[in-house]
Fold each of these.
Amino acid sequence: MSLQKDISELVESQIISQETADRINEYYKIKREDEPNRLFMAFGLLGAILVGLGIILIIGHNWDNLSKEVKSICSFLPLIIGQIFCGYVLLEKNRNKTWREGTAAFLFLSVAACLALIGQIYNIPSDLSSFLLTWLLLCLPLIYIMHSSLSSLFFILGITIYVTQTGFTSNDNSSSWIYLLLLFAVLPHYYQLYRRSPNGNFIIFHHWAIPISILFALGTISSGHEEWLWVSYSSLFALFYIIGNSDYFVEQKSRNNGYLILGALGTVILLLILSFDWFWTDLRKANILLNEIMTSPEFWMSAVITVLSLSLVMAYRRRVFHPQFKPLAISFIPLFITFIVGMFSSLSIVLINIILFAIGVFIIREGTKMRHLPWLNFGMLIIAALVTCRFLDSNLSFILRGLVFVGVGLGFFVVNYWMIKTYKAHEN
Amino acid sequence: MKTKTVLYIFFTLMVVSQLYVPSKMVWQQESVIHSGTVFKFRTAPVDPVDVFRGRYVALNYADNQYEMSEKREWRNGETIYVVFKKDDFGYAIIDSISKERPANVDDYLKTTVDYFTSEIPQTITVVFPFDRLYMEESKAQNAEEIYRREGSKGEKETYGLVSIKEGRAVLLDVFIDNISIREIAGRTVN
């Protein structure tokens, strides 16, 4: 409505011609027709999920009056209904996205319900990881057959729960490798989404779901050489950050760029944790045998991710250094060197603090040059957090600590005030 | 057209496998129930901190430890095969534990080592994977309450009736003084 009003105003003020106005109107009319009704889609999906869950709960009541056979047949009902619906959609309504997503989501939940209910009827002991694995494998084809992104998101959530549930509770890390295979299985759909609707809602959810899932899963490969996980994580955050700076992601809104936000925040939080002495004291005490390290999955995972990050830095070297130097993209390199130094010397703790301080300064500089207030504040927040951490492990008096905090707070205020003033002056 | 045909073939394969897996579960459990050997497993007094589980009764078993006669290394979580025998009162006790599938025996249980004590005498605590009895929602809480009260008094005989066949086990019912817990719980609710 407001667009119509604006166009009429522009025509009246003779800024655009009537012909241009008509063309603009025509463009938006076609766009509106092409766009699926998002509200209908959202409620359709919500409806399918709620009905699915409702049926599961009703059967989950475990009616004692019914015989085992009747209960078993009832457990299959939602599954069969889901399959019939999916079959119908595939034959008749394959072009309708809402139908495809809704029926696929319903079937996805029905498979889990059927497996769980059969388990309940026969008092089968619960083994969450094998239940999840069976469920996910049975539903993986849904993603591709129904072209269902909601199923893909369910799948990513499922494999993340599977890997954390199994990986963190047992010494066996075979589930981490199964996870990796399952994640690879969903990537072609992610790519399809990128090709078909690069700015759609579903791909944005994937931009967050996939890196978060990988972050959780990486921790599960630990098998006694956890110190190398820190190297893996620092390289992984850099990898995310560089991906978040690629051509496609640069054009996205920040809140849709999960890789960039997770990469930037992750690196800074990791460095802040490592800026305390405890990690380095433990690292020096650790009995490090080269043979053991070379055969540990943590070491190999660190190596693979670091090589991947280095390759991306090389591929995007222009972007990493121009127009502004992006320290977060290469922070894993000095961190790796510091890690090696830290095995033998306490110098590492100083180096980490210098790295973090330098990152803060570079980000402030980048924010100032780009006139990007959130980025500038992020840089200042890094310095402020670093100062706070150092004050936490020092024996300085409350008055002195108080004064420093007041100083940091004033610094924030002054810099922001100055930036906003500069912007306004620049705009005028 | 060709792509569509391939799509339909994959869809059919998916549908069949989605129906096959739970059907196989049903078939396997039914086979254990109908042609397995039935054992009575004495339950242990219930730990009072054990929280209410909602829709099922959580069971602890008494005779889940076994003293090894010969020294051998066992890992927690390792897969093992357990053969049972009946004691003088007709309850199941562990007869032998092995890392290999026992030959010429049908009623063995495939399970895992819960905890291994390496000090002599070496003891293995076995996971009994039939520790849940699902019931109708409204009755489950009541049943667990009764099981807890009766089991912890130690006066009444409480046991789980379990059918075992070729590694698998199905918990058929829980009895307090030879009366099914479902019956007792139903009675108290009504």
Note: The interface with chain B takes residues 60-64, 72, 75-76, 79-80, 83, 86-87, 90, 107, 111, 114-115, 118-126, 134, 138-139, 141-142, 144-145, 170-172 of chain A (CB under 8 Å).
Amino acid sequence: MTRLLDIRGLRIEAQSREGRTEIVKGVDLSLNRGEILGLIGESGAGKSTLGLAAMGHVKPGCRITGGSIRFDGLELAGADARLLRQVQGRRIAYVAQSSAAAFNPAWRLIAQYCEGPVQHRLMPRAQAEAEAVSLYREMRLPDPERIGARYPHQVSGGQLQRAMTAMSMSCHPELLIFDEPTTALDVTTQIEVLAAIREVVRRHDAAAIYITHDLAVVAQMADRIKVLLKGREVEEAPTREMLAAPREDYTRSLWAVRNFQPAPRDEPAAPEPILSIVGVSASYGTHPVLRDVSISVPRGRTVAVVGESGSGKSTTARVVMGLLPPTAGQVVFDGQVLDPLSRNRPRTLQRRLQMIHQMADTALNPRHRVREILGRPLEFFLGLRGRKKEDRIRDLLDQIELEPDRFIDRLPGELSGGQKQRLCIARALAAEPELIICDEVTSALDQLVAEGILRLLDRLQREMGLSYLFITHDLATVRSIADEVVVMQNGAVVEQGPKAQMFQPPHHPYTEKLLSSVPEMDPDWLTRLLGQRQMQEKGAA
Amino acid sequence: MNALLKTLRTAPLSARIGMALIAAYAVVALLAPLLAPYPEAAIVGAKYLPWSAEHWLGTDMLGRDVLSRMIYGARNTVGIALLTTLLAFALGAGTGLLAATLGGWFETTSSRLVDVLMAVPSLIFALLILTIAGTSVVALVLVIAVLDSTRVFRLSRAVAQGILTMDYIEVARMRGEGLGWIIRREVLPNASAPLIAEFGLRFCFVFLFISALSFLGLGLQPPTADWGSMVRESAKLIAFANFSSWQAATFGLAPLLPAGAIALLTVAVNLVVDWVLHLSSGLKE
């Protein structure tokens, strides 16, 4: 094994309005040919900055203040633009998190694939196209001969991510950097992308840095794992060693997240349902999205709705909230049939039914301060004013574990992702609701932060007897917090029942597929799963 | 207010120059009667006097003091332009935000109406209306405001449509907030940056438009001083000027002075607008 990349004592500084802050504080990193290194840590740990630095690139506003980056004998820290151009894209390739944003929507996939090798004068266009087709085949894209002729919006998210990985291989790079390539994908799609990436990296004998916050994913992909926290290295060890025996407390806490269990509660005998969705069908225009969906949420319980994207989970929430009138069926809340449209519902009913969105970023008005965000529902629903309102805002901030004095005058832009989501929860709580619909509230957050949110929701449920309709695609979350589980596919309910029963075989085939697609912490899991699926396919054929 | 001051302090040099120039224009316009050495329309000397200590910028073809007319012109031209722009914004932004938020028939009708207005070349349209209605200041302001409000309508509607897709609007709607709250408290604060930038640009266009109409003889009527008609009155002099001596050459500069005043204000406003646009784009560098 020869050393390909050697980073020593790297320091990177970011310039912001408040001055300079060091975001990478002296990190060492080495990588041999044919090796995959996993970089993990929560957001803000400096994973992406380090990943980009490995190709000699820093984001605008950042600069390298110390250390060296040696790639195959070349010094990339402070190298001139000409040298970087020769290396970037050609010998080192980068795969970004959002392939939809990384592709130019106006060009066909294959044209974008060929741009690199042709520009770098590595091969004529015809050869590049031929190689593209063979890589598309390796990446197990459907119809590899013709898929290159499509535009980015004409293929699915998982296919686009694979097309981007193929594109990154176009110049036969020696080093690939993957920055959370599967974070935006469903579990079932994630498997395919992971398998394809792993195979392609191995076959071409390239080295790779795999950046993610998902431990189970990194366990499948990496030979070695490096854990980062706030710009510093926590520990580094071969994958199996680290999984078996993490040395540092921080690493152990990352591991522990997956084992979150809510506090046990006494089980009253079959509480009456607070919300019943009865035979609801809905469509966007003429395109049907929900077919005869019936779900009921018992008072004080959590019902989790799971499924891939496009399965109709969020649409169900929109129907309940009165944003999309159903074409058939009705929604019953605490014995009353709800009007199909939110604006026709009495204010008292609107108050008792609240929703928390997936993206806290877009759910908070960026020009409103915390005081106003929490104050408005208090004023609107409860008629609180002046001193009383101020006190209640402070209570709410206390409840979501944000210090009132520090946070009450902030704008959403001055909060972290987890704090924003907490604020959204507080806004829902301000109305003193009985049922909260949580639409993927943790999926945009990294695991430690997500765990904090789940703990908070669990505590609030115990203290106030709230009921949750919890929409998610993450089965680990379901396993930890749900009382009942509803599995949806293509706008219909496939299976539903108490959690214990749902996680016990026998499963509906779709549930089986979902369950088996959730990465496990076992490094052999992906290999085993792929083996099993191949066997099944052979059996079926 | 504090936040505004803080933002002002971060303004780059170009924006500071722009703001200083605009402030200077404003002072001149507001204090015109105090600053001008002679009355606006009085004949105070011989025709076409060259620059001298008595008449700093000479006199025009009737013997009126050019400097005084320039100073009063600032008040008339800039004041009317500002009033017109404000009116155009009240009209355009109001209907634009309302159309985006309400949707439905109101949006369709107002959008098609705006399309029709925009299809007619605005200068021709203004000439037509002013010829029919007569060239009073009120007619001038109304016609230009209505014509310009179409652009503001389009911009504010497009900006609002982007904002209305955000989840926080959905949250407000689920809460049962009324139309007024949604437009004023949820949409407007987020649309303000592009609207302010557009305000600066619109102001320049209105200003040039009034000058253009005055140049054509349909804007402000004599003897009211305004820069557009001053350019028109002295435009031909540039061809007859004798550039052999310094004194004689000033005669040829006559049309360039009001034209320069127009150009300088336009540049100044744009320097500030550039900066506001930059702020609203959210770029850090």
Note: DSSP finds 13 helices and no strands in chain B.
Amino acid sequence: MPQQGNEQFYPFLRIRVFHQDFHQLTAMIKAERLTRRFGGLTAVDQVDLNVPQGSVTGFLGPNGAGKTTTMRMLCGVLTPTSGQAWINGIEVNTHPEQTRVQIGYLPESAPIYPEMRVEEYLRFRARLYHIEESVKSIPRVLDQCGLTHVRRRIIGQLSRGYRQRVALSAALLHEPKVLILDEPTAGLDPTQIDTIRSLIAELSQDRAILLSTHVLSEVEALCDSIVMIAGGRVLASGTLESLCAGDEKVCEVEIDAAGLSILRADSSRFQLVEVIEQEDGWCHCQVTAAGLSDPRPVIASTVTSGGGRLRTIESPRQPLEEVFRSLLTSDRSERDQA
Amino acid sequence: MRSVLAITGRDLRSLFLSPAGYVVTALFLLLSGIIFMRQIFLAGQPASMSQMLDFDALLLLFVCPALTMRSICEERRQGTWELLMASPPGMGRIVIGKFLAATGFLIVLLGLTFPYVILLEVYGRPDPGELLSGYLGVLLMGSLYLASGILASAMSGSQTIAFLLTVFFWILIGLARVGAGSLNPALADILFAIEPYARLQDFTTGLIDTANIVYFIAGISMFLLIAISILEMGRRR
């Protein structure tokens, strides 16, 4: 990928950072054919990623799928065996320091130094990233992550939820444009999960977030798009709607009795698979239309033009869990055959 | 430089807060004190610290690996090593930061023996040149042990193994020199050249030889560079 945008020199780091024009280049996190082998084991196999600014991409997969390895390669912790990754348009392997300064990384289990105090740990991290620690950044992240009242506490004495927040606040300290979060809510109680999720949703407004998880509800709650991975390979990627879209030939409609009669009368075009008459007079039906991949516009116009009333019309959506499970099953059978 | 100092400060604080740091300090001062009282602080003895410094150098063979064994192993165990690797400072700055922290602790440790020097100054007339040269030698030798300890910590996944690796490496170098003398004089010469204890004795007797300084600095640099290379290779393994 060519380097575009404005170049800025950071004298304290003695590095140049290429700030990209986001209108020209939308992918803040990009990976092409990213591969990592450990001896004979291929942990990550030709993974492609594309995370634009202002979005949360869920990196979904079972344990050992290659999520953490991929994230480590994006952060420069591991070097890929082959393939390339870019952060904000800058290649990770050729410009490691320039990319690391733009990433906020929260590894799995949120490791932090237990003997340090919260504020002290943030000061240490600020010095690592060359930030003016005392003036703005630390109070900002303490406030953002709800840590102001525990800022003088020893990290090892805090609850897991607070430790997770401390780790997240450290990842936000240098105001990174890219956040890579490896299972940020693992092991937290429901209240803590809600807090962290709200924070992530707030942060996603102006950042690109790659969020690894195997909690499907988390993906549904937070993510704009999903990358499903298993055995190191991407099984599917896309928006939640596109991945969970069911059979578009089947429509679920809610119509009144007149609408039902219209559809029944036109049996050459429409077939009513299932009809459930509801107490309030509306009928819930599953309808197919011969020869049409998406029959919704035709059904809607036929019902309304014939004087019937239509309350809802939609293609049934598959649960994410089911999509994920079927992808995993087909991947396993493919591997077994191979 | 700021990031190096950040790592140094954090590690130094961790060393001062860890029970291992206190135990090491207490034992070092206790044993040094015994040698001082039994061998040096006696009527009719020359006002020289060389005996205590020679003994301190021997203690450092165990003290320094105890200080460095956790420098990288512990970070790996806690998972914080991954955060350091994902932060802007390169491996060189991380390793140098850790080495400076351990050296800083060693300086404090040696500084705590300063009351013995004052006692000697009160009751005798020690040669300040010999004292300074002796302390410089012990510091250089300790730093060499620290650098090799950091290498062992980088190579090993366990603190105990890192400690033993460093201790046995230097014991082996010392023993091999003695043993090789009877077998092969040429090999004995080589081992004599790489063995630090004989060079330290020059310092403790007040002789500052540039060759010895170069030896210690080269040795420290070599161990640190190998540690940096090994850790950098860890990204690719």
Note: Chain A has eleven helices and 16 strands.
Amino acid sequence: MSYVTGLRCRECGHAVEVAAVHACEFCFGPLEVAYDYDAMRGAVTREGIAEGPPTLWRYADLLPQLPGTTADDRVDLGAGVTPLVAAPRLGAALGLSDLWLKNDSANPTHSFKDRVVSVALTAARRLGFDTAACASTGNLAQSVAAHAAAAGMRAVVVVPADLERAKVVATAVYGPTLVAVKGTYDEVNRLCGEAAGEYGWAFVNVNVRPYYAEGSKTIGYEIAEQLGWRLPDHVVAPMASGAMLVKIDKAFGELVDLELVADTPWRISGAQASGCAPIATAHRGGADTIRPVVPDTIAKSLAIGDPADGYYALDAVRRTGGAMDDVSDAEIVDAIALLARTEGIFTETAGGVTVGVLRKLVAQGRIEPDERTVAVISGHGLKTLDALGNAYGPTTTITPTLDEFAAAVRLQER
Amino acid sequence: MTATVRIPTPLRTVTGGQATVEVAGDDVAGVVAALDAAHPGVAERLLDHRGAVRRFVNIFVDDEDIRFGQGLATPVRDGATVSIIPAVAGG
């Protein structure tokens, strides 16, 4: 059932009815979905969730599923309920005894964006839209194009022209109108921010953002459920706009409020690339304002120089006693390799950012060795092969003779 | 100095539905003041109680974010386009 009561401005509290709007008309603050938590209490149970589908829709009661939406109305490719795996070998390499990885590259289009898109397009359809649009650094583009295709909606996706080729191909294949813009992601985003007012489309990260953003809460719900309805001690999440980190923190708070988990303290920490670290920079300087930057990093999926949820990410990290840091392009590539070689998970550059910062925070003592720590691996490595350059290839190339084979593997064994 | 200000949807309740408004002003502060004179209520939505641009308001002069320029003191040339855009989420 739907517990949605409307939308409310996160800054000034101004309430409005459910609609495709994202900014408060009084202060421009972000509108958030409001729920009737009192009605949820006691009605939303672990057992009820366990009876749900093996997708993020098992948490439908905690999501902006608008009144009148049935299971058949959902735009659902099966996103969510991705593996939470113990990572003892990576943990040993970093000095953590209880490390876990939330492997969101296992989503249908191989990034966590499938969560937000499934929720956003389900709401968009209910609100009467037949066209889905977005500004994207790549992962959102793929997810919107795929979900729109499956829902029979038109898709218009707008990306920076310098996007990785894999992300362009893996978006275009679903048949959207794919607009490449000669500019940065922030310029693409601004364009879409203006276009959203002129076209009657559901821009998932603009006018239907209140619904979209809530989808990321399911990462938090799943981590808790997969740990046996317990909260971890520490979560490390990548930050682009900062929204995912904020929503994981929100999810934990909701689970505590609804008494679905015990009220144990958690800390949440944020990871950025040094070439685009406006939130981590503000955190380091103890600043209250976030100065936008022009991104220059291989972690293109995190290359948002003007992070809309950065303030809330700062709040969540400071409130929970977490940390932030950033890593260089070289450290990102190292971390991708470390994760692959220790745990068999190949992540894109954003995952390299998360693992790289995780390594840094442990080394700095900002994560205790025995904290139960979960790192969010947000996307798959095949998306960003370009970032690895020519560093990986055959160990050796031979003709098909046993002698050459023996020589080749001997070389490897040394 | 006359600038064309592009009005975002949430502000159009104040501008009587107008999507663009022509106002005079030498810098962004002047443009906001002129806009508020023509359409009272604009300034309090864009600026906080200290007179600073609210943190979820983005203002661009000829496609340049004023936070990369001189903020409210960013000059506005004759014929410039000023865009006001609520912050949007990332992707």
Note: Residues 4-74+113-212 of chain A form a domain with the Rossmann fold fold (CATH 3.40.50.1100).
